[in-house]
Amino acid sequence: MTWIDETRLDDVDALEQADSRGALRALASGGAQVRRAMVATDEAGVERWSRADRPRSVLVAALGGSGLVGNVLDLLADAHSPVPVTTRSGGALPGWVGPLDLVVAVSQSGRAAGPLRLATEAARRGASLLTVAAADSPLAAVSRQARGTQVDIAVPSPSSRTALWSLLVPVLRAADRLGVVDVPTAALDEAADILDARAEECRPSSESFVNPGKDLALALSDTVPLILGDGPLAGVAARRMAAMAARTARIPATHGTLPDDAATIVACFDGPHADGGARALGGRDLFADPFLDGPATLPLSLVLIRDAASAAPGHSPGEAGREHLAEAVAEAARSVGARVREVRAEGRSAVARLASLVALGDYATTYAALGLGVDPVVSAHVADLRDRTS
After folding, report:
1. Cα gap 16→19, rounded to integer Å
2. Cα 292 from chain centroid?
3. What is 185-250 written as a DSSP string?
4. pLDDT above 90 covers what percent of the chain?
5. Smaller CB count within 10 Å for the chain: N or C?
């Protein structure tokens, strides 16, 4: 018994009708977003940047569906960047930001209050400015007035959640030119190819039993998902999947990254959702019909996101330890009756492996929304919240 209507998932016409803003179509453009964004970034002048232009620090201003941009740049810069990378969603611009620093402001609409405010203050202080936004937006205007570098959104998309690669690629390409991260053109080309392949296997006409996006959507159904990444890269993908589960599919989910969050996840196995909710009643009801009565409360599910690099020959002792820890968490989950689903990254470069994980989670949560009968883009409660706070 599942909340998601599997017949709806396999009905292409029903999917198209329910997907009012074309979220699935936008996700399928991921590869095109990468390629078009590379061209748009170079045309904006970033191609002329070099390591000689490297700033003292980089601050990324992004929030909501764009927030992953800062997480990814921080991830890729963490081990090798010669300059610090920080992220902000809003609030005040840190006092140390000045003419020697680079502020990167990202907003699909170019109207998000936090990034717009931070970019405006950065321009006032004389900091270098890179903006990724709609061409005719207030954020683009701030960039032009400050003689910053504005990269226009290359591929239209119904929301920032489905425009990820249009927002992320310009930032990665600029950071690579400055020597902050190592993301060469070949890595972005590989990511685009992986996104194309994911779009093909997760296409609406592909049935649930062979479509990994629909299959994972069904695994998330009628459960409380615990989404756990087995390292920093997988942890970024886990955070994205949990956010997409809540914002797109309206399924509350928690996330974590090994090794630090293992105890947080495993502690949930002592709670009321363990053993299919039986612990909430002090024990399992032997006479309960799981098909007619349903569980007393939602059971747990564990989505274990694995970075392919951690399983490669010659990996570091730290990666070997995470591998063992991941297996231990999975065994503990199975012992309390939680569904366990593993998702493994594909690709060679870090950005390609991340693309394979993020894309699958994006498709799964979008299919979950459609199978539950909710619009993956439009939320009445989010619109109401905006009205109440505007």
Report:
1. 5
2. 36
3. HHHHHHHHHHHHHHHHHT-TTS-TTT-HHHHHHHHHTTSEEEEEESSHHHHHHHHHHHHHHHHTT-
4. 81
5. C
Q: Per-residue pLDDT tens for 83-135?
A: 999 999 989 999 999 999 999 999 999 999 999 999 999 999 999 999 999 99
All domains in the chain, ordered by first residue? 6-19+205-379 (3.40.50.10490), 55-179 (3.40.50.10490)
pLDDT tens sequence across 233-249: 999 999 999 999 999 99
- Give every strand in the sheet of 149-152, ordered side by side: 85-88, 58-61, 102-107, 128-133, 149-152
Asked if 256 and 228 count as a contact pair (C-beta separation under 8 A), the reply is yes
How far lies 262's CA from each of 301, 341, 354, in Å? 15, 16, 21
Residue type, 27: L
Return the structure tokens found at 98: 């000045």
- Two structure tokens written together for 26: 């936008």
